[in-house]
Amino acid sequence: MMDEVLESAGLKLGAHLARPKTRGAGRRPGLVLAHGFPAAPAGAGQAGSTYPELADWLAAEAGWVVLAFNFRGAGTSEGDFSLGGWLADLRSAVDHLSSQPDVSGVWLAGFRDGGSLALCVAGEDPRVRGVAALAAPVDFDRWASEPRRFLEEARRAGVIRRREFPPDFDAWARELREIKPLTGAAGVPPRPLLVVHGTDDVTVPLMDARALADAVSNKVEFRVLNGAGHHLRHDPRAVAILLGWLERQEV
User: Could you count the other beta carbons within 10 Å of the beta carbon of residue 54?
Assistant: First the structure.
């Protein structure tokens, strides 16, 4: 469960910080986990609900400090969804983990839209030492093409709770067009990048993953999972790949 609080632009976000049970005297690498957009109606309440469990497992297996959190509007977090707001939340998560006295450096691992935002943050923040993007779309055009329809989808999902939000619809919609994961990916090298995608992902095409891999000419690890769908968080092969990638990082 999300048993801690992370501050982001005056909002309180639900968070969970997992540490290895065997703590040494030295500092350890840190990982931020980012969940995706809840697709099901009223799905916001359960968004990222299994990520604390994943954080605990990765902390135990990899020996890292792992932070899971809910973006604004999801789970127990305050606020309403905007893409720029979610980007700000992920930046705040990096700040929070970086400030921990036992953390030596920060990596990001994002699933679905969380992976896309992780690429954006890594592309602009040199503190991020590596990124794993799993089932991540290369852009947000599927939302930007019909922003009013997507706004209603966000309301049904429960990530927008206030009827008067957004106060400026045009500015809210503009973020869907202007935030570019592909640009972020191009800014990751020479830091390592892991891209994982399933062949049977009907939400985000495999060509998106190939475009992300092509944008990075150095230190990219591209893995395609045969028969895997969009929700790689629940595919043990994808989680095993993520763990193996963490163990190979230069910490």
Answer: 22
